[in-house]
Amino acid sequence: MLPETAAHSQQPSSARKILILGGGFGGTYLLRHLLPSLNRKDNAEITIVSDENYFLFLPLLHEVATGAIEPRHVACPIRSLPFSDRFKFIRAVVDSVSLSDRRVSTTAGTLDYDYLVLALGSVTDMSGLTSNGGSVFTLKTLHDARYLKNHIISVFEQASVEKDAERRQGLLTFIVTGGGYIGVQLVVAIRDFVFQDLRNLYRHIDPAIIKIMLIETDRKIIPRLHTKLGAYAMRQLQLMGIDVRLKSRVTMVHEDHVEINNTQIVPTNTVIWTPGVAANPVIARLDVKKDSLGRILVSDHLGVAGFPGVYAIGDCAHCEDPKTGQPMPPSAHAGVRQAKVAAHNILADLRGKDKRPYIYSNPFEVVSLGSSRGVFSFHRFRLYGFWARFIWMAGYSLLSTKAYNRIRIVTDWLLSMVFGRDTILLK
Ligand SMILES: Cc1cc2nc3c(=O)[nH]c(=O)nc-3n(C[C@H](O)[C@H](O)[C@H](O)COP(=O)(O)OP(=O)(O)OC[C@H]3O[C@@H](n4cnc5c(N)ncnc54)[C@H](O)[C@@H]3O)c2cc1C
User: Fold this and answer.
1) Using one digit for the tens of pLDDT, what is the confidence trace for 25-70?
2) Of 331, 333, 366, 409, best ligand 1 pocket probe by most atoms within 8 Å of the beta carbon
3) CATH number at residue 216
4) HSE-up of residue 374 (Cα within 13 Å, Cβ side)
5) Domain span holding position 211
6) Rounded CA separation 330/304 (Å)
7) Are residues 229 and 267 in the same domain?
8) Are 149 and 27 in a shared domain?
9) Above 70 in pLDDT, residue 152?
10) I need a surface site. Which of 47, 337, 392, 401 has the fewest CB within 10 A?
11) Structural domain tally of the chain?
């Protein structure tokens, strides 16, 4: 006897196929909303395809890159999500999507679908990068975070034996480009890691030569943040000794130095590139209407015009703030909310019921400014300093997928406060 809710493997071959591309915020939250509601009468089977076998909690990546949280603790295996017997997971890279043929090509073969959810996220926008043999770090994957952490520790190791003053200066200069949420949170985390942990271990390095810079093209950091919160954040960065350059850009990256605004040369071996996002290449190749960031212009119900049964969510979808008419920024919050609406609308499709529109609203703003400060706002209520950071920590640890991850993340934070961050250089 089948349970009332449908098990994937027990569906007849006539079952309608729901295919989800991407196991990030959009994809996994869609699963979480869809699975408990889907029942046998819906006669549907769900397959999710993603290039990693885990869901990655991106907002905590800068804490991984600076040794406060263990990499594994911000990742959750997709196969271990609740109701795992009701969906099929395929670890594969999606190569292309043919909306007209209703086919998806992956490294594990071709898949067809009745309903498709495009939740492949975005990639870091590298369009402003000009390089003359120099490389930059990005922060988008678990690998990026581990690689960056190893690099930061390794430049300290090299600097501790470097005799040449200019080369030592380059090794100890860290440049983050992009003063948005990711860049600001990362630059402060690097500052804390360097000055609270590494400095104590590399005692004969003169802290006065360590330089941490944030380069932003706009005239303020995190331009979307409320003016008062933004001003507080800016003041904190300056008090921490971070050299913030507004209305500036890295115009050329060389192997051991960068040019800023085509005029200033700064020796450095560490440039971290965070400004903005660009379309996932699979989405970029789709012949549908898109915005300037390459996001698909979806309908109120998150559907892709001209292709019934196809939805786009998260960083793949362009939606507007109904209050301002402005395109909403890519965010985990939006991905999670859209996943809920898309799940509802797929069920409505299956059951012939009314669909629900997605209405953007985000009354929260929260930014971490290192281990003991932050800014937070909820509607007109604003908080600065420790309690804002506390809300950030509580919020993000609670939002992370499973109890296991929550406990591990909170434990990591507590341990790093007492014993310091992890400074092991793991090859
Ligand atoms: C470092 C960092 C910090 C952030 N901090 C915040 C924050 O504090 N608050 C906030 O609201 N937002 C934050 N964001 C933004 C937020 O994480 C994204 O907006 C959100 O993840 C978008 O969800 P998504 O499902 O569209 O994409 P993602 O969560 O990126 O998921 C996309 C999934 O698709 C997979 N994938 C991609 N291409 C392929 C392919 N070709 N084949 C198979 N699988 C593929 C990826 O591996 C991933 O699993 C942050 C982003 C980053 C990078």
Assistant:
1) 999 999 999 999 999 899 999 999 999 999 999 999 999 999 999 9
2) 331
3) 3.50.50.60
4) 23
5) 134-275
6) 18
7) yes
8) no
9) yes
10) 47
11) 2
